[in-house]
Amino acid sequence: MGSITPYETAGGRRYRVRWRAPDHTQKEKRGLRTKHAAEIYLASVQMKIATGEYIDPALSRATMGERHETWLKARKAAMKPSAYRVLEITWRLHVAPRWEKVRLTDVSYSDVQDWLTELAEKRSATVTLRAYGILAGILDVAVRDRRIPSNPARGVVLPRKNKKRHVYLSHKQVEALAVESGGHGTLVRLLAYTGLRWGEVVALHVDNIDIERRRLQVDENAVMVGGDIVVGTPKTHKRRSVPFPEFLVEPLEQLCAGKPSRALVFGDGFTHQRRPDQRKGWFVYAKKRSGVPAELTIHDLRHTAASLAIASGANVKAVQRMLGHASAAMTLDVYADLFDDDLDAVSTALHEARGRSI
User: Fold this and answer.
1) Nearest residue to 303 (alpha-carbon basis) of 172, 164, 186
2) Which pLDDT tens digit goes with each residue over 105-137?
3) Distance of CA 226 to CAs 75, 140, 203, 279, Å?
4) By three-state DSSP, how is residue 11 classified?
5) pTM over 0.85
6) Gap between the Cα atoms of 78 and 202, Å rounded
7) How far, in Å, CA of 355 to CA of 208, rounded?
């Protein structure tokens, strides 16, 4: 099962431990100072082999950088190009400088905690948590591959992510913004009354619009990836049918008039329209002229659609389907603040029920 042999060095006698690993390859550990230490080491190895807990020391010497390549490659096929690019950038800017050359066995809980604390002081909670997810994910795979016995990154104290306050517009504010958006008015109204994401709206083709049923068939999403627009499936990978109000029928008919079925509805019909700049351009000027909150983003028009739909009496399941959320629970979680009035209704109903029963 194993052997212990002494050998001489300039610093004195040392001991070498040799053993046969479960894969029948010969392994050894050198540099042990006493025979007793060598015996203890060999006994520990033999126990781990017997209990199935043995880890090959050679595999543990791999660096985080080497394991990162395998980890990231495994995720590429399952991720949207935009999300994959975010991971690449996060690794390069925030994880690699500290961990790329560190061996798996040299990662400690305290070092991970110190790194996260320093990163959180400089970067947002979102960036910090994303960087941590990469590090912990690589180490999780290393545990499953039996390169390390446990993940030293698990259990650290993480920064709390504060949700950005949603900006909701009223019907009057949406109309004011649309009017001041000029030729982009129909685009603004469609975003605010359907809840489509920007990439879903600009990827709409003429044949995605059913005027008679007032439905939009959402089956593509055009997102910016490294300066280029990449067209793929919607965020949840599921096609969905989204209703639009009757007042948008005529404007959409005008946009589609004379265009072939596979032409894009917005823009020149062939090139996907790019998301407006948040610092300058038509959307910024339209916000200023219309008087809507300055912090409003294009994505807040999606939140506005949810707000207006709920205020009109739409149930949570309908809003979920309209927005393309994975579940109604997700819709309730994202827009919990829109259901405060429901709490008042509950207390009122309980009061009235009590009055009728006693």
Assistant:
1) 164
2) 999 999 999 999 999 999 999 999 999 999 999
3) 18, 29, 18, 19
4) coil
5) no
6) 24
7) 53
